[in-house]
Here is the input.
Amino acid sequence: MSLGPLMIDLRGTAIAADERQWLSSPLVGGVILFTRNFESLPQIRDLVADIHAIRQPPLLVTVDHEGGRVQRFREPFTRLPPLRTLGHLYDEDREKALKSAGAFGWLMAAELRAVGVDMSFTPCVDLDLGLSEIIGDRALHSSARIVAELARRFTAGAKRAGMAVTAKHFPTHAGARSDSHTELAVDRRDYDELADDLLPYRELIRGGLPAAMIAHVSFPAVDEKPASLSSWWINDRLRGALGFTGAVITDDVSMVGAAVVGPVEQRVRLALDAGCDLVLLCNSPEQVPGVLESLKGYVNPSAGLRLTRLHGTGSFDWESLHASAEWQKASAAVSALSKRPKLDLEG
Here is the structure.
């Protein structure tokens, strides 16, 4: 059984009977975990193992674990600072910032791999244009070149810990003032004006970027559809012009930014038809049965292969990891980021 095109979430700290049935469907490819799914270290380790045991190949287990405002698991996981702290450090000491970015990526990934999580949806490579509140300090920097440098080191650190990363939110959420979770998000720039926003993707793709998350942002100057539902953005630009060969993943299709095209079943199908490999459906358990029914017969072997490549590799024992010299060094580097004074990256 290959991995299917739908990723869903869970209601609580264990798998409910109906959820187990959904996860057994060949149309499901994985699970995204949230804070409500985390209670303790043993519990999250058992939950991830239970999810992995349902199928072969195992379902992907993912989480948003960027740092700052977007970190689903708390103590005893290291409290990660916002990614922007790396940009602040870069403005003072480039080499130290690059080393810290690698340590950040490794630490984030190593702790998640120690409980079996396959992948974190990070890093955010949207530029800090001072427009999007939902991005804010999740952005590494306002300079595309600096974002690319830091993101490359971050992804290398995560890869060394056995984790594939996901660059987001393609092509960018930086130029849309609205939050696509709750409003229609629009960026009215022409394609030529997006060159800087796309530069981090160009650089990461050259290095073998394994996955990219597509934004529910519309760019009416090139296509009225949100990027997540646009074959022009996914096939012509991302796969064609940029040469991306990894997995294409949507942001949550229950978000308002994707609702412009109709009911959720239609959104899922349009995203897949546009070239997405995996569609996230979160916080809407009542809609899962209908979506699965609407996808009956759907098969995409190429997408399944790309998703299988996202499984985590290697493993860490939590106690041994935290006793290691590498963890202590990385932890010190990341902790130092939180203690730095904030600088204005927009000046």
User: Anything to note?
Assistant: The radius of gyration is 19 Å.
